[in-house]
Design a protein that fits this description.
The complex is a heterodimer. By secondary structure, chain A is mainly beta. Helix content of chain A is 0%, strand content 46%. Chain A has a five-stranded mixed β-sheet, with no helix packed on it. Chain B contains no helices and eleven strands. The chains are: A mainly beta, B mainly beta.
């Protein structure tokens, strides 16, 4: 399994963009990079995933470095509802996800 | 669709007791998995299944048993509860048909005294 390194915590002002980084230098060529978030007292929820190209959806954008050793989750306008723990998970299976400790995002009104 | 349903939501056990955490999904997903989350920690994979009749161990399988007799259900059995198993337990399902995104249940808070 690819090891990941994420900041323990980050802060953002409401309505400003947030860039959440993740290092995964041991990622394999077939690993997709998944991002999940966990709101307080809830189970994790899917945010976005990608392989090589940058990806966008209604929740966020995912920027993947050309060498794939790092990625950045971008929330374009942070809201209070985005306060959560964000997990970066490289994996090539749909049934084994290894969560690290993630980044706890605080959104300041 | 109800999605992934976990029961019970809360449970208190005494050391040495056994119990089964229930997990059911109505999305016809092939993959199901169990995670535990200790306070301030990320989720750790206990057991997973890629289909009915097929299960395998994750990171922290000791003290837990699973079986998968149907596509819908994936119960987690604690054989002899220990205080170290106090945790929040999450069940998840996924499928290649949905891009292998994990769908989680709302969790079971288990306390072992």
């Amino acid at each position: 399994d690819a090891k990941t390194t994420q900041p323990n915590s980050m802060e953002s002002n409401e309505e400003e963009p947030v860039h959440l980084p993740c290092n995964h230098s041991t990622i394999s060529g077939t690993d997709y990079i998944h991002w999940y978030r966990q709101l307080p007292s809830q189970g994790p929820e899917y945010v976005i995933h990608g392989l090589t190209s940058n990806v966008n959806n209604r929740m966020a954008s995912l920027a993947i470095a050309e060498d794939r050793k790092s990625s950045t989750l971008i929330l374009h306008r942070a809201t209070l509802r985005d306060a959560a723990v964000y997990y970066c998970i490289p994996t090539n299976t749909g049934n084994q996800f290894y969560f690290g400790t993630g980044t706890s995002l605080t959104v300041i009104p | 669709n109800a999605g992934v349903t976990q029961t019970p939501k809360f449970q208190v056990l005494k050391t040495g007791q056994s119990m089964t955490l229930q997990c059911a999904q109505d999305m016809n997903h092939e993959y199901m998995s169990w995670y535990r989350q200790d306070p301030g920690m990320g989720l750790r994979l206990i057991h997973y299944s890629v289909g009915a009749g097929i299960t395998d161990q994750g990171e922290v399988p000791n003290g837990y048993n699973v079986s998968r007799s149907t596509t819908e259900d994936f119960p987690l059995r604690l054989l002899s509860a220990a205080p170290s198993q106090t945790s929040v337990y999450f069940c998840a399902s996924s499928s290649p048909s949905v891009g292998e995104k994990l769908f989680f249940g709302s969790g079971t808070q288990l306390s072992v005294l």
